[in-house]
Description:
2 copies of one chain form a homodimer.
Chain A: E1 4-14, H1 20-24, E2 31-35, H2 40-43, H3 46-53, E3 58-62, H4 71-83, E4 88-93, H5 95-107, H6 116-119, E5 130-134, E6 146-151, E7 156-161, E8 169-172, H7 182-198, H8 208-230, H9 235-248, H10 262-274, H11 278-292, H12 298-309, H13 316-333, H14 349-359, H15 373-382
Parallel strand pairs in A: 1-8, 2-3, 2-4, 4-5, 5-8
Antiparallel strand pairs in A: 6-7
Amino acid sequence: MLNFQYVNPVRIIFGEAQYQEISKNIPAGSKILITYGGGSIKKNGVYDNVMQALNGFSVMEFGGIEANPHYETLMKAVEIVRANKIDYILAVGGGSVIDGTKFICAAALYEGDPWDFFAKRVPVQKAIPFGTVLTIPATGSEMNSGAVITKEETKEKRAFGSPLLYPKFSILDPTTTKSLPVSQRANGVADAFVHVIEQYLTFSVNAPLQDRFAESIFQTLIEIGEKYVKNLDDIETAGNLIWCATMGLNGLIGCGVPQDWATHMIGHEITALYGIDHGQTLSVILPGVMNVMREEKRAKIVQYAERVWNICEGSDDQKIDAAIEKTEAFFRSLGIKTRLSEYNVPANAADEILNALKEHKMIPIGERGIITEEKAREIIKSRM
Amino acid sequence: MLNFQYVNPVRIIFGEAQYQEISKNIPAGSKILITYGGGSIKKNGVYDNVMQALNGFSVMEFGGIEANPHYETLMKAVEIVRANKIDYILAVGGGSVIDGTKFICAAALYEGDPWDFFAKRVPVQKAIPFGTVLTIPATGSEMNSGAVITKEETKEKRAFGSPLLYPKFSILDPTTTKSLPVSQRANGVADAFVHVIEQYLTFSVNAPLQDRFAESIFQTLIEIGEKYVKNLDDIETAGNLIWCATMGLNGLIGCGVPQDWATHMIGHEITALYGIDHGQTLSVILPGVMNVMREEKRAKIVQYAERVWNICEGSDDQKIDAAIEKTEAFFRSLGIKTRLSEYNVPANAADEILNALKEHKMIPIGERGIITEEKAREIIKSRM
């Protein structure tokens, strides 16, 4: 395996009704801002539970953080943080709220234009501490230090991260998913699945434990994904789904192995340009990456076919074809459309997506930069 | 799955020749004590590399920490720490050196008799910070906060732990294993394997990802264990073995699942009474626990048989018998004897072991206290 460093200081608090742990993990006397999204937490009881848990603290709130959180929206929260000398933030929501909160925490203490974190790759030097109450299993943001932010003005969706942006703690309470709509559940499963693929489907570096950990997450998502999407009251399954999503992107399975992330990078541009959900764009693009890059990823796709899907008959190419088919069928079983044409993208989508990738210096992509402009075009066109 | 909290702040630094990372992770101006065992690090170059990496620091050393580190030995190091105002310790060795170092770090700042940590279960309130350079993959101590110490005077082998006793960093350099003797390699593999079994072979709580992570470690240890033990120059395999051992006991696979630890508790008494290596005692006792507790652990042993050993034919009891046989054969393939009689224990060993367990309030043991005195006797006798 490759050399690596790994450290992850996030305290995970898993279980039902763990709200009393929040106040134990926030310094006494903190001036807290709670951040959230469209307001579903006010309907499903999570907001009330959080506010009760914060009894005795000075608390302000900032709602309305949208999916693919907007720089423009988040900068309003930054103003509130600065004006009110907020010194702790509690993100209550899914990956968008948590990612947005990471940006707020860093931007509030940055003296220049916070878009510098993306445009100039300025490293984060200081950040307000924060915790999370996760309500949507998907992104893994609750146990990592990265975030993806969208600038609405220029339709740019960009990533950043810093060791200063790990949550201090994350409450993973499976009952918070009860009111989660089917589409958000499905997108979450797809997102988690593709996070794992990005850290697995590359080339072998003789890292058998990392391979098997990744396969463990695939197998579990395949086993419980559809059940989680369809049985809204199945809290046990939701708990297992949460743990898969958290483990899918907390750095562990990526230790000492090459990583791809091409599906995500192409997907980000599609979301930014056409407003298609993140999990949907991944489900569209992944089969194309697997198919077009089959030579470069051959050994790993065959291993994936055999171990994850139990496809043991036929030639390697037949196994690869079958594994791609099974993967796409898995996304469709969750109710996700897997073709760009099903989302009514314009006919010149491939050109637009490629231009955006080039503008963001994302070509070539993939492990070892194996996805050239030509390959990326082939991938996108094959998914129309 | 069960509710849980998980946090693990250890920085893992994996790879060859990472010694330059040591000084980056120790505060400037620290007065350092390096701790080690029998002196093999002076022959294999590790000591020289460490001393070179600590150039510029004030460094003292304490060698001679034995396997199953003795309270009596460690108290001598405590005196050195106190007398010289040591404020950072660097453990260079295997689990015994690291465990012993954890005790030194806590004892040096404790005002009473440090055996209170064991005899009175006094919680650790302060500890000197420490890092590790791991040289023997086995115990997982390099990424956890627990330790096992032996009081030679009374032949007691006891465990303690504290969140203050996580290493700040651990260097995992597979080349350090080059000079490791075959028997220590074999013991390490057995130790790691049984750590995982203790967190897996209990009763099901619907935690499919934890199950699969555990099975991943079993499968990898089975795949590479013998190769690691026999091919002393195979650094890649050593690296994979290290990662299995570290992941086997860093808390992760135990999140949200019941745990057993009976094999370890019985094994500790055998080591304390008869001086048999830790990994050997585990290899002796585990098959007995599996056999005698087959009713209580039935579903999980069958799952283990099917998924880990690919035993899919026959009745459940036949699968269990075959899985026990495969497990014992695995230990023997590493060169470990798996019967007490092969180690020349006295005829009344069962009584002596049981008396020690009772004296240390270790009966009943196992998940849900299912291993009564009678069952423990049956387990030990079945392994003569």
